[in-house]
Design goal:
homodimer, 8-stranded parallel β-barrel, 13 helices, globular
Chain lengths: 297, 297
């Protein structure tokens, strides 16, 4: 039960205006993932607004998730923080609550050097002692990993995976090859960016770290399963069907769209943490229409 | 006593490994600024590592600074935070402790839209009710203000200034003109980026938000004073003399260099917050040599 294989679904973390997590709504979202039998659940990813929740709320979210999932699949928990000591504390909290693995992004304010990021990961991995996935997401962290740095990190104890943003289909094979070349066999190379994920899996990615998979796991699993059966044409067709959702993601960001979807489905009544604003009403109507048109409910 | 005119010196905030502020060392740094009679002091700017300190420590730093400065010059306090409600609380803390103004950067993780940033500023300004400077620093916040957005913000109550990164001498006049054109007379347009600041002041900038000025206020004030006397040649010569310091800033970042300088001068014994690492010994020796060569002590 590796947390770094196949579909990893990342739900939103519904919370009130003060950043208090609505654990009942979170449990509803997790129940969908358990019922769909996703191979792994990614709690408190970027879509799970980990960066906006304090330590106590992040711990409450992990405890609620561990209770709901009850060991039926591994729970991967985001522990990113600006300070190294805070990331260590968050990792210890996640471990003590029962996480199977942790996901660590190099959150930055002052731009970081490669050596600083390396030392940050080394300190956290050594203290937390759980399988760790390097979370590469330059769009939010403003740090870009070289393949060489991923290679150095992969040789540290506990660092077992990378979550890399998949480039377009034309580039993804080369991108994965560079990461494979820098790391040893058994190191998991998985991809985010839902609208490139099908191509990334076809090119040999080990995992799909998925925003859509955090709310619509069945539809994403169909794609993964078609590829596992070698039916690339079916996978491509299933992916193409979701294009209206991918278009919304690129236009409004997947996080904002997921809040609108979860609320439309009655699973939550949450707004993203301010300063992020809920999407305007007309956009929410467009999103609802796509959810119905694609029969995503 | 506007906090947004002339030289604004931004000291580091010495703290221990756990992020506990060393208020004695901070007071020593502030005493230099008071003795040099800087027009304004910028506490908890980017160089003051506001992003890495929690609310309680930021409040301790402000209280120590208010005590040390004792009203002899205005104190401008950085209140940036990822969450809007946290920025409000930090602003209220700064106001209640005696700050003269606040400096607010649009810190981001999820990339923000213009409307989100506008609403963030409106909420904070309305709650805090202190003169507010919009802190534009895309290198750390990953949000770039358009002149039009600065214009919209300048029409909100309490928003009285912008701190904009000065582009090179060839571009700075156009940059300031665009901001002047978008804002009303009396709105303060000031610049950061020390190695472009002399040109920015010559082009009519209202303030120099200075990292070097947080530790070497005398040398920076000489430049400001020469320009005030209309002696541009003397100002350019004084600025040129500091080129070895500017070169260190661009090579290693001004924050990392300032820690090395303050420690070399015996004013602090602090490391930047991890994951930021102290500069390697040989670099620290180079920095010490520049401090001595330029007679900066």
């Amino acid at each position: 039960m590796s947390p770094f294989r196949g579909l990893v679904g990342f739900p939103i973390t519904p919370a009130d205006e003060q950043g208090r997590v609505d654990t009942e709504a979170l449990r509803r979202l997790l129940r969908r993932l358990v019922e769909a039998r996703v191979p792994s659940i990614g709690l408190l990813g970027s879509t799970g607004t980990y960066a906006y929740l304090d330590r106590a709320e992040r711990r409450r979210a992990v405890e609620a998730a561990v209770g709901e999932v009850a060991g039926r699949m591994p729970l991967l928990v985001g522990i990113g923080a600006l300070r190294t000591d805070e990331a260590v504390r968050l990792g210890e909290d996640a471990r003590d609550a029962g996480a199977a693995g942790v996901l660590l992004a190099p959150v930055s304010y002052t731009p970081l050097t490669e050596d600083e990021v390396y030392a940050h990961y080394a300190s956290v991995a050594e203290a937390v002692r759980l399988p760790l996935c390097v979370y590469d997401n330059p769009g939010t962290t403003h740090f870009s990993f070289s393949a060489a740095l991923i290679g150095r990190l992969s040789r540290l104890p506990y660092i077992e995976a990378v979550k890399t943003p998949a480039p377009s289909a034309a580039l993804v094979a080369d991108h994965l090859r560079a990461l494979r070349g820098a790391t040893e066999a058994g190191f998991s190379v998985g991809c985010s960016v839902d609208w490139h994920a099908q191509a990334a899996l076809r090119a040999g990615g080990d995992a799909w770290y998925s925003v859509a998979g955090g709310l619509f796991p069945g539809r994403c699993l169909q794609i993964v399963d078609a590829l596992a059966r070698g039916n690339d044409a079916a996978a491509a067709a299933l992916d193409a069907k979701l294009q209206p959702l991918w278009d919304l993601f690129t236009e409004f960001s997947s996080l904002r769209v997921m809040y609108a979807c979860a609320n439309f489905l009655g699973l939550s009544r949450a707004a993203p943490p301010r300063p992020i604003l809920p999407l305007p009403e007309p956009v929410q109507h467009r999103i609802a229409a796509v959810v119905e048109q694609l029969d995503l409910a």
